[in-house]
Amino acid sequence: MSEKDPESQKLLAKDLEEDESATATQKPWFYLPSNAEREDEKSEALDGEKDEISSMQTFFNICNANLGTGILAMPFVIRLAGLWGVVIIIFIGFLGNYTGKILIDCLYEIDPTDGKRKRVRETYPQIGEAFHPTYGTYMVHIANCFDQFSHCALFLIMIGMVMKHAFPSISLSESDWTLIIGLLILPTIFIRKMTQLAWLGTLTAWTAVVISIVVLIYSLTKWQNWTTTTPPFNIHTVPIAIGVVMVSYSSAAYFPKMETAMMHPEEYNSIMNFSYSAVTFWKFFCGVIVYMTFTETTDQIVALNVPHGVFRGALCVAVVVLALFFFTVPAFTIFDIIENHLKIPWLAFNYTNQRRVIVSGYLLRFFLMLFTLILAVCVPHFSLLMAFVGCSTGMILVLIFPCMFHLKIRWADLKNFDVAAELFVIGFAVIGGTLGIIYSSLALYTVYNET
């Protein structure tokens, strides 16, 4: 059998190179970029001028991060804890502001040559790595992954609850609505880049604010019916209220990137004080006014307090759209953490192999979303699951980790008061979180047995 002449072999090799080039440039719609390609995209973006944000933009970003769907449950917090609910909202807002600032302090170290602060880190996981080189990064990623996973389930439960109340004539339960909507949004597994949903965070945050404003205006028109009677302290419900409020302040993971992008990072602490004061005031003001209007009938989601009619229907539709939009943000965060940061060997996909992309990449995403949907269908209560999440991963990411990391990384520079304050925050988070987990779990068990 004769061998091919050298010229034919060169032409064949050239054709194969052209085919490979065409395959590389014409990627299928289901293509997932590899880690190397993601890094290339980042480096290309960095080749241009760095996008810096002003102090005003930082203020609105911090407000956006703390004005999500959690604000819709603030009146229910007052129903659970009475005047203690106001104390809880203010106190946790104060603690969140404090830990948000010490978390950023972990990005810096003191330069021994001139005594000035020098940035040596940029992200929350890098701070975790400084705390423990082997496990610190995994601690942050795993806690964040569970937190975002729980938020996905919360949004699905919210949708099911609101749809049931918006269309009471349709003979479907909350779980049925959750299942239907959950199956409809499964295509979120095809989201490939954060840029495809970066605008959703701002949109959903301000949609929640608009909904709360509308209900607040309605409550102000009913001022003749207001009552100043509040529920007494109840050890069974106050820890649940703590968890619900904690979820509404679960934004610590975003702060390092915000501060890194600031045009004037030296103004970060002042902006934190201003934004947290504004957000905290809005939360307890809205919670108190709406509760005084609806008292013991105050529902878990603020839009469900309005009487049946076109107005309530419009609010319910707005809440459903809000939850659908916001669902994609934690969903993508889960995908990104598992696929690109946990470094699990069997998840190191060969992204140039199209078949493996389909089987490994999207199959994993599908089962993650399916498991989220199963959890949402099986758990019958929005605020109780919200309290459980806030008292577990919320406490860890917002209060415990920042204080632990700061104590370890900046120990040599801390005064006795700083150490005592951070130990107090950790103690509060551990005790309050444990009580919240216990009582929300017991309440979930009770509700589950009744349904």
TrEMBL record:
PANTHER family given in the database record: AMINO ACID TRANSPORTER, VESICULAR INHIBITORY AMINO ACID TRANSPORTER
Organism for this UniProt entry:
Paramuricea clavata
Q: Where is this region: Disordered?
A: 1-27
Q: Which family does the entry's similarity section mention?
A: Belongs to the amino acid/polyamine transporter 2 family.
Q: Which GO terms describe its cellular component?
A: cytoplasmic vesicle membrane; vacuolar membrane
Entry annotated with the keyword Hydrolase: no
Q: What is its main location?
A: membrane
Task: Identify one Pfam family in the record.
Answer: Aa_trans
The protein in question is named Uncharacterized protein
Basic and acidic residues composition-biased segments: 1-15
Can you cite a GO biological process for this protein? Answer: neurotransmitter transport
InterPro entries the UniProt entry points to: AA_transpt_TM
MF terms from GO for this chain are:
L-amino acid transmembrane transporter activity
Membrane-spanning residues where?
A: 76-95, 145-163, 175-191, 198-221, 233-255, 276-294, 314-338, 359-377, 383-407, 419-448
**Taxonomic lineage:** Eukaryota, Metazoa, Cnidaria, Anthozoa, Octocorallia
Give the membrane topology, semicolon-separated if more than one.
Multi-pass membrane protein
Location of this chain's protein in the cell? Cytoplasmic vesicle membrane
